[in-house]
Specification:
Alpha-Beta Plaits, 2 helices, 40% helix, single chain, alpha+beta
């Protein structure tokens, strides 16, 4: 199972951690793992390219950890949160289509 933990402070996303594998198909053929990877990495790339934030993520096999900078101006914080919420919508839709392979928790 893939577990996604999204942490917020004052409603703003500050950290996204993804752990595990869906186990729906052999490695390299699992569409659930691929879909989750696309969503979380698009979030990272959007922060870098669209918002020009100096942010990196720890990305390894079955692991993704991104921490959002804490010194952002409110307008940028809102944009980060919107991008993160869009990612969460996608993750929720994956879970609806393929129940039992993905768990999304928000703290």
């Amino acid at each position: 199972m893939i577990r996604v933990c999204v942490k917020r402070t004052a409603g703003h996303v500050i950290n996204v951690v993804v752990r595990g594998h869906a186990g729906n198909a052999p490695k390299g053929e699992d569409i659930i793992c691929a879909a989750v990877s696309v969503l979380v990495q698009t979030f990272l790339f959007s922060l870098q390219r669209l918002l020009q934030l100096d942010v990196t993520a720890d990305i390894r096999d079955g692991y993704f950890n991104l921490t959002v900078p804490t010194n952002l101006v409110p307008a940028v914080q809102e944009q980060v949160t919107l991008l993160a919420d869009s990612m969460i919508v996608g993750l929720d839709e994956i879970d609806k289509s393929y129940p039992g392979f993905l768990q999304v928790n928000e703290e």
